[in-house]
Amino acid sequence: MLDTLRDLLAQDYKHKHVDDARCITCGRSDLPVALHVIEFYQPESAQLPPLFVPMSASRGTLRGSIPVCSACCPPCGTCLLPVVTPWIRRVVAALVAQHSGVGVSVGNGYCRHVHVMADLRSLFRPVRLASRPLGGSGKPPGPSAAVSTKWRARPFHHNKSRDDEAQWFANAPGWNLIDSRLIAVLIDRLHGNPMFEVFVHASQDCDVVSKYVDLNALFDRGVGEVAALPRVAAILGASGAEHCVKFSELLKSKSTSEKVLGRFYENALNACQASVHVEPNYVLSYVHLAVLRSMVNQGADALAFCSKGLEAVARLRRAPFHRSELPAIKNAGQDLDEIERRLMSIKASLRP
What we know:
By secondary structure, the protein is α+β, with helices and mostly antiparallel strands. It folds into two domains: about 120 residues, no CATH class; about 200 residues. It has a four-stranded antiparallel sheet. A hairpin with a 2-residue loop joins β3 and β4. About 10% of the residues have low confidence.
């Protein structure tokens, strides 16, 4: 009897197709979702957050699930239960920060096997929530004051002033959906820096401009001035890391054309370099830059990136994370040991 109940419970924990359920991280509705990886509870009278699935209510408390799809939280190859990595726990922390008054926690419906590589990979995966795909209001921001019906498309490097750059972003397709407040902090950070144009092209070539739109909500919550640029760097840096991995795979195959190899290499290099100009303390990109340059026998450059990364790690260790109100910042120190080990390992492998 107990074995039968245990099997039934395990079946309920596995990914399944659920009508109208969308993944909280990627927003997809076409994949099976796990309903017992992330759970929530809140007052029954409170408004239900987007994408949350109510399951039961008693004594004034509503309980339910937050769907996570099989792509974002894959099943274990042995038991087929969802695998909970440190990334899932950071998703939970992000949900707690986004929805005050709602209790969010990891549920019981996950695999108990050890997944070392999945855990390590998850350390470098940025958290992105799909609950507000177009900002806090659910609608694209209105046109910026810089929008002009007489505006003519021009290369980004033709912009000379801050006003020119603001006008370009307000009119360029894709970029014009981004909140003007985010554009303003980008201009403040990168105006006059030759890497500004690299940032623009890398964002377009890596197809991440639409992901910046999701950051509009940070300004609606009053944290955009502090949190937006680190998130931009994380989005672009993660895409650069993906191109770096692809370049490595194609390099080993020895059957890929130089043109294709060059495209992945350039995208990886530009994205990672631009990310550390957007946010100098985004240390993951120094790891990928060191690996990338070492793969093309540029050992001196790789060592330089290792040194810059280790300097950034040391700088971050002195930062008062524990005083921050943002979980993503408050817990930032937890990944530094792993990043430092990787940088030291790369540096040691390059020494004669």
